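Input chain follows. Return structure tokens only.
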Amino acid sequence: MGRSLRARALTCLAIVWSWTGPALAAGERQTPEESRGESSVQETPSYASAIEPERVAAPAAPAARFSPGVEPSAERPVHAVWVESVGNQTRSRQGCVDLVARLREVHVDDVFLEVYSLGEASYRSDLAPSALAANEDFRDPLRAALDLAHKPGPQPLRVHVVLNLFRLSAGRRAFPLPSEHLLEKRPTWLSRDARGNERDEKGAAFLDPGAPAVQEYAIALVRELVSRYPVDGVHFAEFHYPDRTAQWGYNPLALQQFQRDCNSTVAAPDPNDPDWTSWRSAQLTGLLGALARVAREERPGTIISVSAVATSKVPGEGEGETRPIFQQALQSWPQWAAEGLVDWIVLSDLPFDRAEAEGFARWIDFGRAAKGSSKMIVAVSGPDNLDSEVVMQMRIALGREADGILLHSYQRPAANFAPDSDFLGYLGRTVFSPSYVLPPYVHQAIADSLPPQTGTSPGLSAAPDLPPPVKLDAAKPEPPPRPITQADVARALLGQGNGLRRADGDTVSAKRTAGKGETGAAPGARDASQTRGPGAQAPPSPPLGVEWVRVTLVNGTQFVAERAGGNGDPAKFRRRGSGRTLISVKRSQIKSIEPLGEDNEEAQQTGKPDATSP
């Protein structure tokens, strides 16, 4: 089936999901409460009426007693919810009691609890300042949450602590920081961009992963936390360089370490210099390995997970694509999964359009092919999607055989969420229920709209389409065919190796062609021939691929811009020549968005906005 036909089929699937359910209105499928004549909601909620009704799952049988570190269920996908550090849910013991009780009620297996963000800890720490107000009596919400979650009950609940190790601020603060905060105490640890800025366009500041002192601090922080608290998992959020670009990492301490490691005399390497790019990526990989090792040593069985960058186009599918989006962020998560550094890969910030869900599904296929022995969990962002879209994405993830789904977040489960909404209860009765079965029409719609999940080995059963076969030189003898392994897949997805040989003899390569001045080395790898001694010239830097689009508004106005991503409203773009300034446009004002490809000639010539631009 052609790509256009698949796209139309998925559009039809979205329309089916958006139908108002006549059966629900007519009472043909009733909940147990409705059958007894009870009704706690006077008006039909949007997530129920916007999706074709399905039979509510029957109550699950009581689960066995649960002890920390034990898999709640090996037969069904992981059902997880992210709890932000903001809000009142963890500011009192009663708040923790209500939170854990609610999560158990809606059949959640795993809770991702933010405990370290913006350089502050929501637990007792000797290394980080407290995120709680000095006058608060409740000083250890993590201890309370763990005690409640690990209390034997009918619904197992694991607690994963979420650490955002690098981000120190979300923007400029209107009030002073405590003197022990890293922004005040360790300003020399801050990352810088290629221009020397220590703040991004929003005013946020970050620690530099390449600075040795930062790495030592992160390891000590994880060791302290895991040794003191019986956590079930440790999750690393935003584990990449700022802005997900190669422009950051110019901390003086990091540059000094780079010069020592690579025998380089370049004071400030180009952002896309191969040695510099590989070295920074290797810092993330090495630090993650050290953090995982420390956590597992202190508490064997701890689940290590990381938020994986999964935005823009699926690797290998973008015309003119130079590097996958996660490599542009210097985050080689397929390598982390293949090498067993992490137990779970959490695909985050997946692109989603209600009328075109193919990209979302294909990222899930890519994750399945790249996950190795790890579990692949799909994170669904509540703030960026309507409640009906949240359910739709969860069903697609389950239909594409993801290992689990993660709702981000408990406080903001949907963009149109209201405090009196029972949306979490709806999820508990449907997609989170232990006895939930994906409706047959969803299976059929997904099967009709996407390429079949086939491959040359069981490990590739859900692999995305790879690039066309490479034409081999007939004069060269071909090596004998061999089965493709998960390690081969991971290396190919990272641009390593010379290709994968199928059983039929054809060679398929996922390695991009190296441009002028580039190398084919994977992140973290460095060829000795690339080491530059005194006086050596730095190789030319490859251009960074940019996705350009022509945006047409409903009033006829047009402009060419770089798509800045995001699934929310308004849509965001960045025009050429505008630096980092973002353009926000309400989706209701957009008539069409026409892709122009990466580094498009028309976009290259568009140095200024069109005359008709707003």
